[in-house]
Write a structure and sequence with these properties.
The chain is of the alpha/beta class and 260 residues long. The chain is built from nine helices and twelve strands. A six-stranded mixed sheet has the order 6-9-10-3-11-12, with helices on both faces. The protein has a four-stranded antiparallel sheet with strand order 2-1-4-5, with helices on one face. It has a two-stranded antiparallel sheet with strand order 7-8. Strand 11 (222-227) and strand 12 (230-235) form a beta hairpin.
Amino acid sequence: MSNDLVIKDLRVNVADKEILKGLNLTIKQGTIHAVMGPNGSGKSTLAYTIAGHPNYEVTGGEIWYKGENILELEADERSRLGLFLAFQYPVSVPGVSVANFLRAAVNAHRAEEGKDAKQTAIPIAQYRKLLRENMASLQMDDTFARRYLNEGFSGGEKKRLEILQMSVLKPQMAVMDETDSGLDIDALRIVSDGVNKIFTPEMGVLVITHYQRLLNYIKPHVVSVMMEGQIVREGGPELALELEDKGYDWIREEVFGNAS
């Protein structure tokens, strides 16, 4: 069974407008794959569609992971299969502490059909140890766990929490939607270090970004360029450097000519 994420001819509408227009992309297990593109190219639509957001209407194509077309699965089922989405703009949940949220997520992943939830729940002492160790690796103060989920968090704190979730849940395929958005250089380093610590040969990571700067810290194996809802170019890390130097217009002209 392949643990690659394989997207075939994906077409997606948002508010009756086609955003993804026959997109093809493969994220291989054991690789960090960056998708870059100008604003409005459909990058976040791709991320949310992979995760199963209900507002994104799939009109064609398939997404295969672990032998299943995950388009047939609900968002929680995709998560339990090993998929994870780090949001560009994480939402706040007043009244729910970080510690309780993460414990509920861990227990949801540990649940087994036919077994009582108490039988599969992570023991409290084991969970506290897991949480403390992962928070320490991301330079988070212990008081962070008692705060309400993203309420009053700075941009950097929200992104660290996304990486903390990855650290605790240990997904096998992680999608990071513009995780560098709103981060200063110190927060960017901490978040990137966290991703690099989590990454293993058993994991795949899709890094969606607009700028090269994140890729100075999270080194991609493959870089794909997305425009007009399609993947139009693919290469190695040097492609990201070329985009940083020359922008996107040269690729647009090569692919679409003067029509776009």
